[in-house]
Design a protein that fits this description.
It contains 7 helices and 3 strands. The protein is mostly helical. The chain has 2 domains: 150 residues, no CATH class; 29 residues, no CATH class. Strand 2 and strand 3 form a beta hairpin. Helix 4 crosses helix 5. It is globular and about 55 Å long. It starts with a helix and ends in an 11-residue tail after the last helix. This is Toxin.
Length: 183
């Protein structure tokens, strides 16, 4: 894993990113796809699809004209952003696949394609070894850290009965205490 290369890539993707603060995850995804398009000289398209249960949550498919980053549509926008960041490293590092999932599962994702075509695409483009997956996970974490300044701060309501416990946890973690029940 080349940490310096990952950091350089992350820095290039967020450098002078012209987005309001806060921005929604889908706005960040669109902007980052544009940056990847500039880096690669090829269109980078983000698509939300319903993956079959117990398969993948993200997939990179490359064609001669474009890179397609497919993300699970039935997950949170924040998770979709994380998945997209993960797939970006597979693209950047040009990770080699290892095997294809079952044809039936991929046919549900790509219903208009014949199963043999889907299997060939996925076999060439989607599944990597454990080391490549760990690299992509690490890159996604680094990039998420960089883009977090554009994301709305997540808050939640803490029940009165748990306020004291949450305040002690925040204190132990060096975080500021917040008045009231919202976090």
């Amino acid at each position: 894993m080349e940490l310096k290369a990952m950091r350089r890539t992350c820095d290039a993707l967020v450098h002078d990113l012209d987005l309001p603060v806060p921005s929604e995850p889908h706005e960040l995804i669109t902007a980052l796809c544009g940056r990847m398009r500039q880096r690669l000289g090829k269109d980078v398209r983000h698509l939300l699809v319903p993956f079959p249960p117990d398969t993948v949550s993200g997939l990179w498919v490359a064609t001669d004209d474009a890179h397609f980053v497919l993300c699970e549509q039935h997950t949170s926008p924040w998770h979709q952003l994380l998945i997209t960041c993960h797939e970006f490293w597979h693209i950047e590092a040009d990770h080699a696949p290892t095997h294809a999932p079952e044809d039936a599962a991929m046919q549900q994702v790509f219903p208009s394609l014949r199963p043999d075509v889907v299997a060939r695409i996925v076999a060439r483009r989607s599944h990597c070894g454990a080391a490549a997956e760990q690299e992509a996970d690490f890159f996604a974490c680094v990039l998420m850290t960089k883009v977090s300044r554009w994301l709305p701060q997540q808050t939640w309501t803490v029940p009165d009965s748990a306020t004291a416990v949450v305040q002690r946890l925040e204190s132990a973690l060096g975080r500021d205490h917040h008045d009231g029940g919202s976090r």
